[in-house]
Design goal:
mainly alpha; 90% helix
Amino acid sequence: MKVKEEINKDLILREQLAIQRTIMANQTTLLSFLRTALYFAIAGLSVRGLLTFYGHTIVEIIFYCVALGLFAFGGINFFIQLKRIKKSRIHIGNYKLEYLEQQ
């Protein structure tokens, strides 16, 4: 009986750590989308100073649109994945419920 309790505690800890790693990976993905969006925004600002031909405003607008699109996609993706992570946390409870019933 004591061995079963130790196994359940170990499984709960592993699952909680796996969820934490998944949450941190989701946050890292959001930050990488933000970083890439900022790179495109900076490229849009640089085009204004570097290019002197007529079409520079079109290129600048394209860079800004790509930056805005990446930022929006990254934010939407973050919240969708966060919702999925919270939803999957429910399925982990079997070991936790079994452990709590034994106490």
